[in-house]
Amino acid sequence: MRDVIVIGAGGGGAVVAKELAERGLDVLVLEAGPHHADVETEWSHYESVSQTILRWGPADRSRTPWRREYAQSSTAFQTAGVGGTTLQYFGNSPRAMPGSFAGYTGADKNAYDIQHLFPFSYQELIPYYRWVEATLPVQTAALGTKEEVFIRGAEAIGLAWQSRKNISTDSFRPQENAILQPGGLAGWTDDPALLKFPLAQGCTYCGHCFQGCTLPRKAPRNLKAKRSTYNSYVPMALTADLWSRGRAATLISDAFVTRVITDGSSSLRATGVEFRIGTTGNLITETAKVVVMACGAVETPRLWLNSGLPNPNGWVGKGLTNHATEIVVGIMPFETRSSVGPASAVRADFPGRGSLESFGGMPGSQAALAFLGSEAGIAGMYDLSPTPDTSGADVVGRLVGPQLKDAMSDIDRLLNIVVLTDDDVSPNNSISISPTQPPDEHGGVPLVTTPSANFTARTQANREFLTRKAVDIVRGAGATTVIRAKAPPSLIHMHSTMRMGQSASNSVLDANAESRAVKGLFIADNSALANALGGPNPTLTTQALATRTAEKIFKLYFGGDAWVSRELPCSSIDAKVTAASIKRGL
Amino acid sequence: MKKLTDTFPDSSPPNTTASFNSSSLKVELSRRVFLARTALVTAATAIAPSLLWDMGAAQAAVLPNNVIIDTLNGVLAFTVPGGDPYSVQQGQTHSQPGAIEANATLPLMFGLNSGGLAPPPFDTLSELIAFLLNNIASSLNPSVNGPFSSPFANLSFAEKAVVFQLMESGAAGPGLGPVANSLLLYAGLMAYSEAGVLDPATGTLVATPVGWTISGYRGISDGHRDYKGYYNGRRVALP
Hints:
Chain A has 586 residues and is an alpha/beta fold.
């Protein structure tokens, strides 16, 4: 019997695994996707190739992706494999809005989703934020051309500079990113021969965050620029015996958990899991004192439901928040260099409303995600919008034909902004088991339901407010044409489908992130979040919460003491971790 | 610079309902659409597996392969027109090359076909998509004629827009909006990526991608010179 089984080696699960391995527990991590051994040779900067490697699907690339059903024109961005979706994320690591937590007393306290607050205070989470920010580490982003353009626009509309980590007023700032900032020749040269470690360190401004960060070339795994958990927490977990007084965690990849096993009739207790090895189809059972679900906001409720676990208040899978995203693009009469540099390195926050952030990338993704996804229809041809546009954009809807070609005529003259709305928890937005799809080899297939028609009035108002701000910023920066896609929710962020909450009537988890219905069963991914955080990107808060959850597990089930308040964290780029990773062949 | 709002100076969309009788089509589509929705939207997240191309996997059982290819080409020319025959047929060309010249057809087809299962009697998702588009096209314009085996590919640019309007509005059957959205999104993704000129055997490019040329993209790289320093010189945010 293991001490702890962690299901999923993504943004949250890897954090719990590292923290508890450091405490000396016997931790088994099960990851459904592959464990990439050499990312410099296995991954590709080409977007058409990368999407066949970093995807929600099995390690065997000849097999199709795992199926999902969607009730609207949107797709979930999720990656299987060690590191999970942090393999493709932008590394943006802002803290949540304080107003999303219990006990907030600011003048704007009623501007948030007050029916679904976190069951503890923002102040309580701050030490855990600091711990994660030091471990990853999180650093203030340097600027490139597109960031300077965004800031000109933000300043033009009178936004103030936010110089602190905690969000308090309408403001802009460089991102706090889980990306090692440029060092040596990084950012100073286009010459690949000079962009090898240690000549170049940290972010090289390659522009391929979404294709997975493999740079600088020749850097040890834990010194690659973007701090996916593949680069940071997982190496620490697998070498905890070498850099700390802990015990190395065990990792099994290509292991899809199909059932959480419980014991007891009147009081259920998690006792283990059943998982399926993808290459062989073999089913294996492992037992543990504690089980931690960290499969993501879609798969965790799916696994719960497929396991037949209790759902007494009906909230399993309910309450999906996704930041009700929208995209605004400005066409500039000057260069923005949108296709180079970190994907997103500057943002603006509006407490009680949500956030905006710039983004850039490769041309295929630019055309598809910024211009072709729309719920309004084809710009200039037909408009199916249920509500009129109030953003002030020049063009509203999908671009096709000559419109698309004109807009795409110079990718490096675009300024993209994604809207991250503080959207409300609603039981109408959910993950359920598809009633129409046949089960796959892992059980019932998840159905993702979150049409924009389900937005609450507050969500809709916030989204329109933020979209107007985005239009103002790109126009303030000098845009000659501003385009609003009226995009469907893009599901780049998904949370709160197994939410913790103040009330047992509308939450799955208690304040310790432990299931109310099954003891010894914790959740440590985005699904555990109580709400949409006020709009900021979720990964840092999930990781801070996962750190707190690891402490709760250690105290409640293993008689240990909390450590965050009395120790200093070891950074994932510490020389001890580098030496340990190299010694273990990672 | 020409404004996008000027692109369609005469763009008064054709009447979308007068000549369209959708009742029989709705029945035909309704039993298939849930699977199409699932599979196509899943496909839209999984770009063409260029390294796994295999023409044999694209053979169709119901529709001849040339009909499928003509239909997908009609979609690609609509999304990113160029100087190709499909763009000429729709009456909307462009001075710069488009999706057809980008060799986006096979990546689009294989991307769709690898993205999910098609319901019987269809062998592939691209076949189902072709069936849907051609059925709606024939209902919209029963007398459509042209050089291609696909009725959709023979439509004008404005008529193609109406096909997508009928799908997205629900007039052509329930649940087709996500299919239309994802198909166009996916076509653009293929046209502007390097998929059409990637050698599946070596993983290298055999030519400069059209999508890169027409978007001014400078190509993949291990890094760029674009470091501009820190805002106000501040390297660390205050706690």
